[in-house]
Amino acid sequence: MTKKLTLYFTLVLVALTHAAINAQMIANKEQVIALTAAWEGERLPDGRPKVSDSIIERMKNISIEEAWGVLRGEGYNNQFEGEWKMIHAHETICGRALTATYLPKRIDLDEIIKKQGEADGRIGASNSWPIDMLQQGDVYVADGFGKIVNGTLIGDNLGNSIYAKSGNGVVFYGSLRDLGGLEKIEGFNAFVKGWDPSFIQEMILGGLNSPTRIGRALVLPGDVVLAKREGVIFIPAHLAEKVVINAEFIALRDAFGIEKLKEGKYTPGQIDTRWTDEIKEDFLGWIDAHPELLPMTREELDAFLEKRNW
Questions:
Q1: Which of 90, 166, 225, 282 makes the best surface tag, with the fewest CB within 10 Å?
Q2: Confidence (pLDDT) at 20
Q3: What region, left, alpha or beta, does residue 92 occupy, with left being phi > 0 and alpha being psi -120 to 50 degrees?
Q4: Residue 267, Cα to own-chain centre: how many angstroms?
C-alpha cells in the first residue's frame, strides 16, 4: 500500500471514529430526529419531539399504573424505575426529557469531550451544558451511574438555574447536594438516588440528548417524564396522547360505573365486563349530560371509541 493510500485510510478512520464519538456523546439535531423517528409532530429547536403542553398538563393526572399498562400493551417493557428519594414526595414532575449520561472520568475521553464542546461553542464545565440547553417544560434526566459520594450533579445554585430555564424539576440516577437550599426553590422537585454534601468529582459528560439508561429504564430525548411517589415512567413521545386519552377514558368509565352501581341500575357483573350496547348508549348519554367531566374533547373521545372494543 502506498503512503498516499495509507494516509487516506487513516484520515477516513479518524473521521469515522470522530463521527461515532460525536453521535454517542452529543447528538445533533439530525441524530435526535433519527432517534425519535416514530414522532410525527412538532419538534424543539434541538430536534426533540415537542409533545403539546396540553398533553403534558393532562398527563399529570394520570397514574403510573395507567401509563404502564398502555406501554406494556404496546410492547414497551423497560420504561419504569422505582425506589427514589424526593424533595417533595407529593409533588408530580411531568415534562419533556432532556437526557444526559455521565461516566467515570477518563483523561483521554475527557479531552475529546472538551474539544467537542469548544467546537460547538459550549461554555463552562460539561455538567453545565445540559442546563444551558433546557427549554420551558423540560425535565433534566441524567444517568449519574448511581454515584452518591462525589456524584452530586447539582446543588442549589444549579437548581435555581434549572428551574429558571425549565420551570420544572430533575430526575437523576445519582445524587444531589444542598437539600436545604433546593427545597426553597418554589415549584422545583427532584427524584434522586441519594443526598451527599460532597461535590462532583471524577465524572465526565458522556452523552447529551442521546439514549440514556435510568436504572432498568431506557429514555430517549423528548420522552414524556411522569414522576410520582411510586416511581418514574418514561413515555415515548409518539405514545403520549394515547396514554392520556386511554387513562382519561378509564376514569370516565369508572365514574359512570360507580354512579350506576350506587343507583342500583346495573349489577357489578354488568359493569365489570364488556358492556352491552344498552350500557354503551347509557354511558354516551351520561357524557352528553355531564360535558364538564370530559378532560378531552368529544371529538377525541369519539375517535378513541371507534378504535376500541369496549
A1: 90
A2: 40
A3: beta
A4: 41
Which residue is listed with cell 444542598?
178
**Is residue 280, in this structure, part of any structural domain at all?**
yes
Question: Is 21 within a domain?
Answer: no
Tell me the pLDDT tens digit for each residue of 131-141.
Answer: 999 999 999 99
- pLDDT digit string (tens) for 97-133? 999 999 999 999 999 999 989 998 999 989 999 999 9
Per the structure, how many domains does the chain have?
Answer: 2
Instruction: Answer yes or no: is 204 within a domain.
Output: yes
Residue 7 has pLDDT above 60, yes or no: no
* pTM to 2 decimal places: 0.86
Structural domain range at position 196: 53-236
Query: Looking at residue 76, which CATH number applies to its domain?
Result: 3.50.30.40
| Domain shared by 171 and 58, yes or no | yes
Q: Per-residue DSSP letters for 265-291?
A: SS-HHHHTSPPPHHHHHHHHHHHHH-G
Instruction: Tell me the C-alpha distance between 122 and 129, whole Å.
Output: 7
Residues 202 and 68 in one domain: yes
Looking at residue 308, its pLDDT comes to 85
Q: Mean of the pLDDT values across residues 224-248?
A: 97
pLDDT digits 0-9 by tens, 57-88: 999 999 999 999 999 999 999 999 999 999 99
Residue 255, CA distances (Å) to 116, 169, 292 in order:
55, 32, 13
Rounded Cα gap, residues 57 and 21, in angstroms: 36
Note whether 261 and 148 are same-domain residues.
Answer: no
Is residue 137 located within the same domain as residue 178?
A: yes
* Residue reference for cell 411531568: 94
Among 7-11, 190-194, 254-258, the minimum mean pLDDT is found in 7-11
- At which of 236, 270, 294 does a domain end? 236
